[in-house]
Design goal:
Protein name: GNAT family N-acetyltransferase
GO cellular component, one term: cytoplasm
Radius of gyration: 16 Å
CATH topology: Aminopeptidase
Shape: globular
CATH class: Alpha Beta
Strand content: 25-35%
Organism: Streptomyces coryli
Domain N-acetyltransferase: 30-188
Helix content: 25-40%
Keywords: Transferase
Length: 194
Amino acid sequence: MPRPRRSGRGAVGAVTTRDAGPQVLTAGRVTLRELAPTQLAQVADGQSGGLVWIDGAPPEGTSTGARMMVKAVLLGTHRPGWGSYAITRTEDGVALGGIGFHAAPDADGAVEIGYDLSVSARGGGWATDAVRLLCGWAAGQPGVRLLRAKTEPGNAASQRVLARAGFRQIGVECGADEEWFLYELPGATVRSSG
C-alpha cells in the first residue's frame, strides 16, 4: 500500500501518494490522479482512460492537455508529476475534468497550469479546489518560484477560479488570431498560505 505523505505547503490537509506509479493528490472532496502514459494516449483520443467520467467522456480541454503530454512522452521531455491529472471526486472516483502542467518547470522555476471541467461539474467549486491542490503541490517542489496560467478574455468563470486561488492578472498576450489574459502566482505566496 502506498505510504501517504502529508503536504504542509499550499493545500491544507493535502495527502500525496505515489507507489512507483502515477501520483495521487487528495485534499478533502477532490483527488487529482496523474495519468500514466497509456491513459494519456486514451484520453487524448477522447476515450475514458479507465476512468468513469461524469459526462461519459473526458472534456475537450482534458483531451487537448493529454495530447500535449503524449508528445512530451514521445520526445522524452515528460517528467513524472509534471503532466496531466484527472480531477476526481474523492468519495466515488468519478472524473470531473482535467488539470495539469504544460511542461516541467523551466530554468527560472516557472511552470504553467491548465484545467477544464465537464459541463455537469461546472459551478461547484471543483476547479478552484483542484487549482489550489495542484499549485500547492507544485509550490512545494524544489526550485519552483512561479506558477502561471492564462484564460481567454471571455472566460469569466476561469478568471474567477484563478482569482480565488490567489493568481493575479499581469497582462495580455496577443497572437495573430487570439488574445489571452495572463496570470501569475508566486510560489512563495502558495507556500505561505498553507
